[in-house]
Amino acid sequence: MATKLAALVVLVAFLAGPAACEGAFICFNGWLRLPIICPRGSGTPREPVPSTSGSGLSYGYYTTSCPSAETIVTEAVRKAVVVDKNPGIGAGLIRLFFHDCFVRGCDASVLLNTTNSKNSDTEREGPPNKNSLRGFEVIYEAKTAIEAACKNTVSCADIVAFAARDASYFLSDGSINIPMPGGRYDGRESFASETDQLPGPFSNVPQLQASFAAKGLNPVEMVTLSGAHTIGRARCMFFSSRFSEMNQTYAASLMAECGDNGNTNVNQDYVTSNVLDKQYYQNVIDNKVLFTSDAVLNSTEETRTEVMQNANTAGAWERKFEKAMEKMGKIKSDQQSVEIRKVCWKVNNNYK
Ligand code: HEM
């Protein structure tokens, strides 16, 4: 009887999605195909944190205090993406910004491996990030050069935001110019468990909309920002269960690439893999995208209208992407982000 009841709870949790994390110790946040048992304590309900717009941010924030700051970031990104011809690092930087802002707001908590509470199980160790995020070295390189130019002035959170802006510019060949204000502060805590706030690749439309809404982003912005999947790579483990649902020619080529190794990486956009462009939306229409979370955008009237418009109207997606990225950069930390870190992967001294 107890076994049957447990099985029923697991099934209900699986079908119910993220809400199943509440109360029960069973968690499914769209990152796993099957429900997992959450560590005790992480199953408590989480109130969505209303994300206020980023008051205190302004354009050219460092013009007086550190005039070279933004140029140093731009040059570090240019070196990695253009000079060293590594567009994947640009993709990594755009994703790093998303993963920073969705967890505790844009406070560079995603970079920490040493925190105020001495927690070492930081966001970097969370399932969406571990062995996946890239581009850290560009942030550190920029920070080192900026500290040499002006000490204790420029936050790591701002460097992450400027780097995402610059990566978007270079990868779009100058078509995407995000107006990115500065003035963020760095946080002092980071927890792997909180990365469950990031939407997962097995999410459906309501789940995606809910996770974006919890960060103050609307359904149109959700579809717009998903367009970042026009660059970069993804591991087979996140889509190999849905080959049968894809365009079959596309699925066959992916199957050949993946073999039986879930850790193999493939390009997210099979047409223009290294260009930040609107091709993703045509791929959605053609059923030639990797994740459930990509494919479902073609499945509701609301999201499909956006997909069609983005695919068919020159410049429409690019302008929306600029605005949505800027807005994402204004998600405020629900904790106090209090310092300008000296080194981006550890909080300043005086641990509590
Ligand atoms: C809509 C919900 C989203 C889901 C479910 C999702 C999920 C994922 C997953 C599973 C990967 C592959 C990770 C791996 O295999 O290691 C990935 C890659 C990527 N995502 Fe998303 N993502 C979403 C939204 C976004 C947003 C909003 C952005 C940025 C604005 C973004 C940018 C990227 C980029 C650029 C990559 C490739 C990274 C690289 O090549 O290093 N994603 N995403």
TrEMBL record:
Q: Which GO terms describe its biological process?
A: hydrogen peroxide catabolic process; response to oxidative stress
Give the coiled coil ranges: none
- Reactions the enzyme catalyzes: 2 a phenolic donor + H2O2 = 2 a phenolic radical donor + 2 H2O
Q: Where does the UniProt annotation place the signal sequence?
A: 1-23
Q: Where is this site: Transition state stabilizer?
A: 95
What residues make up the catalytic site? 99 (proton acceptor)
Residues at which substrate binds: 199
What does the sequence similarity comment in the record state about its family? Belongs to the peroxidase family. Ascorbate peroxidase subfamily. Belongs to the peroxidase family. Classical plant (class III) peroxidase subfamily.
Task: Give the protein name, as stated in the record.
Answer: Peroxidase
This protein's species is: Triticum aestivum
